Amino acid sequence: MAIDQRNLSVLANFCGAAADAMAFTLMRTAHSAFVKETEDFSCTIVTKDGLAFANPRQFGAPWYSGIDYGPLLRMFDYAEGDICITNDPYEGHVATHTPDIHIWKPVFWQGQLACFVVGHIHNTDVGGAVPASLSRSLSEIEQEGIRIPPVKLVEGGVMNAFVARVLRTNVRMPDQNWGDLTAQIASVNIGERKIHEIIRRFGYDDFMDGVEQILDYAEAQARAILARVPDGDYFFADYADEDSVGGKPCRIALTLKVRGDEVVLDYTGSDPQLGSSLNMPTGGVERHPLVMVGLTYVLFTLDNSLLLNAGTLRPARAILPEGTVVNCQKPAAVGMRSLTCAMTQIVTVGAFVQALPDLMPAASPGGNAIMNVKTAARNGKPIMASIGPVGGGGGGTPFGDGSDGAGGATGFLRNTPIEITEAEVPIRFLRYGLEPDTGAPGKYRGGLSAVMEFHITQPETVVTARNRNRSVMPGWGVAGAQPGKVSQFIRNPGQGAQHLRNTDLVACQPDDVIRVIGPGAGGWGHPFDRDPEQVLQDVRQGYVSAASALADYGVVLAGNAIDTTATAARRATRTIPPGPYSFGAERMAFEAVWTPDRYALLTAFLASVPVGWRFFLKHRVFDAVAAAPETADLPAIFAGLRARYAL
Amino acid sequence: MAYRIGVDVGGSFTDFAVFNEADASITTLKVFSRPDAPGQEIVAGLRALADRHGIDPREVAYFTHGTTVGVNTVIQRNGHDIALFTTRNFEDVLQVARLKIPQIHNLYSRRPDPLIPRNRVFGIDERTEATGTVLKSPDPEDVAQAVAAARAAGCAGIVLAFLHSYRNPANERAVRDMIADIAPDLPVFSSAQTWPIIREYERTITAVISGYVQPRVATYLDRFEEVLRAQGVACPLHITKTNGGVMGIEQARAECVQMILSGTASGVIGAGYLAQAYGYPRVLSLDIGGTSADVAVILDGQAQYGVGEVIGDFQIHVPSVSVSSVGQGGGSVAWIDPLGILKVGPDSAGSTPGPACYGRGGTRPTITDAMAASNLIGHTPLGYGAVTVDHTAARNALAPLASRLGISVEDVASDIIAISVSSMYAEVSGLTSRFGIDPREFHLFAFGGAGAMLACFLARELNMQGVVVPPTPGVVSALGGLIADLKNDFIRTLYLDVTPAGLATLPDAVAALQTTARDWLRSQQFSGEGQIRLSADMRYAGQSYEIETPLDPADLSVQAIGAAFHAEHTRLYGHADAHAPMQLVNLRLVIAGATPKPAIREIPVATAHARPVATVAAWFDGVAHQVPVYARADLRAGHHLHAPAIIGQDDTTTVVPPGFAIAVERFGNLVITPEA
Question: What is the pTM of this model?
Answer without folding.
Answer: 0.94
